[in-house]
Here is the input.
Amino acid sequence: MDILDIADLHHIYRGHEGETIALAGVDLVVSEGEFVAVIGRNGSGKSTLAKHFNAILLPGGGRVLVAGLDTREEALLWPVRQMVGMVFQHPDNQIVATVVEEDVAFGPENLGVPTAEIIARVDASLRQVNMEDYRTHAPHLLSGGQKQRVAIAGVLAMRPRLIVLDEATAMLDPIGRSEVMNTILRLNREEGMTAVLITHHMDEAVKANRVVVIDQGQIVLSGTPAEVFSQYELLEALGLDVPVAAKLSILLAESGLPLPANILTAEQLVDELCRLN
Amino acid sequence: MPIKLEQVDFVYAGGSPFERAALKGINLSFLDGEFVGIIGQTGSGKSTLVQMLNGLLKPTRGTVTVNGLVTTAKGVKLKSLRQEVGLVFQFAEYQLFAETVAADVAFGPENQGVPASEIAARVDQALLNVGLPLEIKERSPFELSGGQMRRVAIAGVLAMNPKVLILDEPTAGLDPRGRDEILSRIRELHRQRGITVILVSHSMEDVARLVDRLVVIHGGQIVYDATPREVFAHGSSLKTYGLGVPQATEVLGLLKTKGWAVPEVALTLDEARQAIVRAYQLRRELA
Ligand SMILES: Nc1ncnc2c1ncn2[C@@H]1O[C@H](COP(=O)(O)OP(=O)(O)OP(=O)(O)O)[C@@H](O)[C@H]1O
Ligand SMILES: [Mg+2]
Here is the structure.
C-alpha cells in the first residue's frame, strides 16, 4: 500500500502582493516502510509540500491520497490527520504540557482514546524514543534533542503511519541531532515506520533510502543517496551540496587518488583509502 | 568597541523554585576587529552570554563593560549601545513585525536617525548581502519560507552597520549555498570594515574555517578559549560536552587509528586533502 500518492499537485499562495506559485505539479509516491529525505533550497516548496501530507493545506490542483484517502474530502480530515504525524523545527513551540508524560498524552487525549489505552501508548512511545526515564520531568528543562524526542513520542502516541520531520534537527547541537536521527532510523528500520525527513543537512539525507530534490515547486531529481549525490554539479547549481565526505573524496580524486565515485560517509572514505595500498 | 566580562554570573528566576544559574564566573574579553566563535551544547549558556554583550541582559553578579560603559551602572544609555552592537537573535525570524520586507529592514537604520535618502540604499545592500532578490521587498515577511524569513532578519541587523556584529545561530534553516554566501559576506565585512564578529554556532565546520578564536561553554562556564586548531585537538572532551569536531578532522582521526601518518586536526577540506595526499604518497614509498 502506498502511504502517499501525490499526482500533479499545485499550490498557489495568494498574498497581499499577488500570487506565489509554491508547487507546480509535484508527483510523488511514498510506500509503506520507506525513509525519504527531501532537500531543496530556501523557498523551493518543501514545507508547502509537507503541509499537504496531512491536509493543513489543500491542493490548488492535482490530488493527494493518504493511504488511499483523498485530502480534499472534508469528512476524511480526521482519519488523514491521524495517519500523518508532523514534527517541526522549533522544539519549544511543540511542547504543550508541564510534564513530559502529559505532553505525550495530549495527542491521543484529543483523539478521544480511552484512558487505559493512553497510558499504554505513552509508555510505549517514550520507550521508542528512549525517554522513559524522563516521564515525570518538566519538558522545558530538557535539552533540545530531548525535547524533539518528546515531540516525536507525542506524534508516535497518535499511532501515525507516516512521520514527517520538517527541519526537526535544525536547531540542535551535534549530539542532539544525532539523537534524533538515530531515533528515526531505528523506528524506520526496526519498526517499519514510514518517514519523510526535510533537511538542509546533506549528511542526514544520506541516511534515507531515497532522496528527493525539489526546486521551484517541482521534483527535479529522485533516487538513492548514491545516485542523487553523484550529481555534484546539478546539486551545486540548485544551491545545494553533497555530504562533506563526498566532497573530500572528490577533492582527493582530483589530486590523483584512485577513489571510487560513490563515497558518502567518513567511514566509507576511510575504508576506501585503506584499501588503496 | 572592546567588550569585557569580569566574574559574570547570571541566574534566571533568582529566588524562585525555578532558579537556575545560566552563567558562572565568566571572564572574557573581545577586542576590536576579532572574529570569535562560541560553541556549546543547547542550554550551555551561549544565548544568555551574547545577550549580555549589548545590555539586553544584565549580570546578576560581576560586570560587563562595553566601550568603557558598565551596563549595570546607574543612568547608562543602553540605546546607543544597542545601535552599535548588532545582535541577530537565535530564531530571529520571530522578531519580524513590519508589513513589508523593506519596512522591516529599514526599521533599524530609521531608528538610528539615518537620513531617509540613504535608507533605501542601505536596505537594498543588506538584502543583497543575505542573497535575497530585491523583488521580495514589497512582500509581507510573514508570507515567506522559513529560510527567507531568517535572511530578512539578518538583513535588518546588517542594515544598521554595527561595529560589533553578534550572530546567534544565524544559519540554522538556511540552505547550503545561503549558509556559505552569508558567512562569506560576513567575513568580508569583517575584513573590509574591521568590525568585530561574534558567531555562535552548532556547526563545527563553520567555526573551524571562519574564526580566529574559539570559546567553548559548558554548563555556564568557559572550558576552552583558544584557536580552533587547539580546541579541535580535544575531540573526546568535546564529545562529552555534546559537541564534535569538523568532519575533516574526524576523517584524519579515523585514518590515524589505522596507522596513517596524518596530523590530528584539519580545519578545512583542503587542509585534509593535502594531509591525506601526503600520507598516501608516504605509504606508497614505504610499501
Ligand atoms: N504563508 C505564505 N503566504 C504566501 N507565500 C508563502 C507562504 N509560505 C510560503 N510562501 C512562499 O511559497 C514558496 C515555498 O515556500 P516553502 O515554505 O514551501 O519553502 P521551503 O522549501 O520549505 O523553504 P525553507 O527551506 O526556507 O523552509 C516560497 O516562495 C515562499 O515565499
Ligand atoms: Mg520550510
In short: The pocket of magnesium ion (ligand 2) is lined by residues A 46-47, 166; B 145-146 (CB under 6 Å). Strands of chain A lie at 2-15, 18-31, 35-39, 61-66, 69-70, 84-87, 162-166, 194-198, 210-215, 218-223. The mean pLDDT of chain A is 93.
